[in-house]
Each structure stands twice: as C-alpha cells, then as structure tokens.
Amino acid sequence: xxxxxxxxxxxxxMAPKPKPQLLHRIAGDSSQxxxxxxxxxxxxxxxxxxxxxxxxxLNNLNDKRERVVKASRDITMNSKKVIFQxxxxxxxxxxxxxxxxxxxxAAVRDQFISRLINELRGSDFWKLRRAYSPGxxxxxxxxTFFRFCKTGTLxxxxxINATLLPLNDPSLEPLKINVLxxxxxxxxxxxxxxxLAIGRISDxxxxxxxKICRFVRDIYRELTLIVPHMDDSSDMKTKMDTMLQSVMxxxxxxFSIHVRGSEYMPLLGSSEPSSFLLGVSDIEL
Length: 285
Hints:
Elements lengths: L1 H13 L5 H67 L7 H27 L8 H23 L5 H8 L14 H24 L3 H21 L7 H30 L22
C-alpha cells in the first residue's frame, strides 16, 4: 500500500502542467461559446414571437370558421323552412302563405344573416367562403323563390344586397353576396320552380305552370351564356345539367296537359255526358 501511494505521488509530479497560454485559450473559447449562445437566444426570440403570432392567428381563424359554419347551417335550415312555406301556395291561400313566408324570410335575414355578417366583419371573407357559401346559396334560393311567387319577377343581385345593407356597420365596407353564390343559388331555384309547376298542374292551374315554364327557360338560357365565361366550377356544371332536366320536366308536363286536353272531344258533337263504349248518353238507373 505504501509503494502504491508513492507511485501515485510520483506520477502526479511527473504529469505535465497546462501552460498559461493554453489556459487563456480555453477561457477564450468558453467565453466565445457563451457569446454564441447569447446571440442564438437573441435571434431565436423574434422568431418565437413570430411563430406565436402566426399560431394565434390560425387558431382564431379556425375558431371563426367553426362559428361561420354553424351560422351557415342555421341559414340553410331556416331558408328551407321558407321554401317549404311557399310550396303551400294555392289560388285559395296565396296571400296568407306569402305573408307568413315574408315574415320567415325577414327572420332569417335579421337573426342569422346578421350573425354571419358580424363574424365576417373586418376579415378577409374570401378565406372563409367555403364555410358560409352553402347557407348564402340557400338564402338566395329562398328569397328569389318568394319574389317570383309574389310578383312573378326575378330578385336580382343588387336588390338582394340592398336588403342586407342595414345589417352592416356604416363605418366599414358592407358585406355583399358575391356573383358566384348568387348564380349558384339561382340554379337551385329552378328545381324548386319545377316542383311548384308540377304541383300547380295537378291542381289545375295550367296557366301558372306555363308561366313558371317560361321563367325557368329564360333563366337557363341566360346562364348558358354566362357559365362558359366563368372559371372552371364543377358545382356549376352539375347544376346546369340538373337545371336542364328541370326545364324538360316542366315542358313535358305542360305539353302532356295540352295534348290530353285536345284529345278529349264529346262523342257525336254533344256536350252531354256519354258512354265511352256505346256512344250514347248515360242512362240513370
């Protein structure tokens, strides 16, 4: 044990001691590394602030998108109720049905469209268009459907945006329905008019059904001139095919009524009730 401790003592004396220059170099390297770390921390701080800012922006945008989707669903649901109300129209209850539909449409505008406008106020609404477009299209469909049944005319884009103007903040640029959503809603209108025309024919209102036929045909003709100049939109192409089917259904229904009406002629030129098989007047037993 004694010899072992002596050997260690000798080895420690024999080991070379670091030179003063080497100590200064090591100290300098450590100070430079700490300076680099300080510079790295200082450069990371602005990037961290930027990323935090962008993260907050995206989180707020996603939260707003969820609220806009909810508002769009409410607009869609309540606009459909207006459409169902208008479909109850007949020559016996026209004023009553349209009065109720007008109140329901005003409620959609004042309660749900106004909430959507408040959400989109002060933001780039084009970023969220996919979130609210279905509701706006349904509202356009309901508003134009109501206008046609009331006056027989088309509610154009300027008129429908004028009804939304009081809902906007006067100090900000007003939020307006864009042309694309208006045209998409107008394309859906033709389907509702086709259902209305078939219903009116079954109730014997052929003149009203023919008026609907001419109106839908005019819409389809005008849109065939506009759609080729629009950007590629699969939604619009699909709706144009559906619109053509609606036009053909109304035309076939009206044509069938005319043909069937012209085929009926009283036998022997008499207006008296007659037997189809015998060609003589029915005999009351």
